What we know:
It contains no helices and eight strands. It is an all-beta fold. The strands form two sheets. It has a four-stranded antiparallel sheet, with no helix packed on it. Strands 5-4-7-8 form a four-stranded antiparallel sheet, with no helix packed on it. A hairpin with a 6-residue loop joins strand 2 and strand 3. 14% of the residues are buried.
Amino acid sequence: xxxxxxxxxxxxxxxxxxxxxxxxxxxxxxxxxxxxxxxxxxxxxxxxxxxxxxxxxxxxxxxxxxxxxxxxxxxxxxxxxxxxxxxxxxxxxxxxxxxxxxxxxxxxxxx
Length: 111
């Protein structure tokens, strides 16, 4: 089954993983882009992310990279602001590569 969602009804994609803690509790990493659709500013909300460096990549629907940034995360839950004034209206895929080798994704739309 394919990924579902639209500008009016966006989806949130989460990935489950098992932490390396002694009790082996599972945690869910989540990435939410809001508002969605956005205008000149996009907020990325991260939850359950380990401290470390993350690489953010935003691509348009053709797969062309339109924005990249390295984020040094020092909090388990945080929000990161991106200036999106230079992006044209359309659908964008956000990929975040985390220092531990995992990647998380979300899709957003610009008005």
